[in-house]
Amino acid sequence: MVKSVKNRQKQSATFSSYLGYLYNSAYRLVVNTVIHLSKKLNIMAFSSHRRRPHYGRRNNRGPQGGNRFNSSKIRHDMYISQAVLSEPESIYNEDMTYSEFELLSQVQANIDARGYIHPTKIQSQVIPSALEGKDILAMARTGSGKTAAFLIPMVNKLIQNPGQRCLIILPTRELAQQTDAELKTFVKVTQIRSAVVIGGTNMYRQISEVKRNPQIVIATPGRLRDLFQRRIINLASFKNIVLDEVDHMLDMGFVHEIRFIISQMPKEKQSMFLSATMPREAERIANELLVNPVRFEVKEAVRQQNIEQNIIKVPAGQNKLDVLADHLKKENTTKVLIFSKTKHGADKLSNRLALRGFRVDAIHGNKSQAKKNPSNRTIQTM
């Protein structure tokens, strides 16, 4: 009897400990589940209201924590300056003429036909070394004559070597078309033909032009790589390459395309690398591409203070479009570039100004190249 009681007590103790284990396990499971759900709910409920970690004082913040540009805190005097009229520094080397270069008669005749007499400073430096077949690294601002600096010696070389080809890579469609238009003035009365390979236009027409084996192909990186991968264009057939506006191409994210294109070309080639600035990535590409290059740089003089900056305040209750239209009607307002926050806003403003009798057009990324071209030509002729 005593033994039976002891066995029952032992079983009861074992069962109690087992119930305690189950209780503790269930408790931990519930607690962990609640904590997990609480975290999830907390994130869902408050993630949009979290403040970003910050360091230091928030003096530039408004009362709501995000109004950085409170009009009461903007220093308007920072954006207002009067123009100081002065003669801009000449970009030409007036101590030299194009006739001093050792150019073929056809090339010289085309230069004379354009009325060119003095080369620009960057042209006077680049052209002689390029005619010798050397690799070129040139830095000069936009508008300094870089395009003719590589076109003139390259046209001269291709006339002397009809079997060679040249690849010219630029960042945008507009620059490619402008370069081709300038090239055509230098290749008159020659057998040199060119093709433009750019996005936003008819690819099949470009394929047809490329299959005619033009000596010069002017291209943007994306479309050029596309045609190469379609086996339409053979990059190994080009022994001359020009990269123009390289810093602009890198800003647009074409670094991988540029490296890929260079990797598919022959190792022995003449390369010309032109840019307005020289960021680190551009230096790395130049080191990969160029062999013992001749370096040139035309330093930009201190910018003349010939630009007037002002802020036009729109009085309360007055229409901003009315104020803009009144400003555009001023006698000294001839050519105006207006920036809009959005593409839709650009179209909307263009339509409204057109209804008021202004000669206006909108240019943005949603427009096809066929629609951009008339606008570009209008701007150039204004």
UniProtKB/TrEMBL annotation:
<feature type="domain" description="DEAD-box RNA helicase Q">
    <location>
        <begin position="96"/>
        <end position="124"/>
    </location>
</feature>
<keyword id="KW-0347">Helicase</keyword>
<dbReference type="InterPro" id="IPR001650">
    <property type="entry name" value="Helicase_C-like"/>
</dbReference>
<dbReference type="GO" id="GO:0003724">
    <property type="term" value="F:RNA helicase activity"/>
</dbReference>
<dbReference type="Pfam" id="PF00270">
    <property type="entry name" value="DEAD"/>
</dbReference>
<dbReference type="GO" id="GO:0003676">
    <property type="term" value="F:nucleic acid binding"/>
</dbReference>
<feature type="region of interest" description="Disordered">
    <location>
        <begin position="52"/>
        <end position="71"/>
    </location>
</feature>
<dbReference type="GO" id="GO:0016787">
    <property type="term" value="F:hydrolase activity"/>
</dbReference>
<dbReference type="GO" id="GO:0005829">
    <property type="term" value="C:cytosol"/>
</dbReference>
<dbReference type="GO" id="GO:0005524">
    <property type="term" value="F:ATP binding"/>
</dbReference>
<dbReference type="InterPro" id="IPR014014">
    <property type="entry name" value="RNA_helicase_DEAD_Q_motif"/>
</dbReference>
<keyword id="KW-0378">Hydrolase</keyword>
<keyword id="KW-0067">ATP-binding</keyword>
<dbReference type="InterPro" id="IPR011545">
    <property type="entry name" value="DEAD/DEAH_box_helicase_dom"/>
</dbReference>
<feature type="short sequence motif" description="Q motif">
    <location>
        <begin position="96"/>
        <end position="124"/>
    </location>
</feature>
<dbReference type="InterPro" id="IPR027417">
    <property type="entry name" value="P-loop_NTPase"/>
</dbReference>
<feature type="domain" description="Helicase ATP-binding">
    <location>
        <begin position="127"/>
        <end position="296"/>
    </location>
</feature>
<keyword id="KW-0547">Nucleotide-binding</keyword>
<dbReference type="InterPro" id="IPR050079">
    <property type="entry name" value="DEAD_box_RNA_helicase"/>
</dbReference>
<dbReference type="Pfam" id="PF00271">
    <property type="entry name" value="Helicase_C"/>
</dbReference>
<dbReference type="InterPro" id="IPR014001">
    <property type="entry name" value="Helicase_ATP-bd"/>
</dbReference>
<dbReference type="InterPro" id="IPR044742">
    <property type="entry name" value="DEAD/DEAH_RhlB"/>
</dbReference>
<comment type="similarity">
    <text>Belongs to the DEAD box helicase family.</text>
</comment>
<protein>
    <submittedName>
        <fullName>ATP-dependent RNA helicase RhlE</fullName>
        <ecNumber>3.6.4.13</ecNumber>
    </submittedName>
</protein>
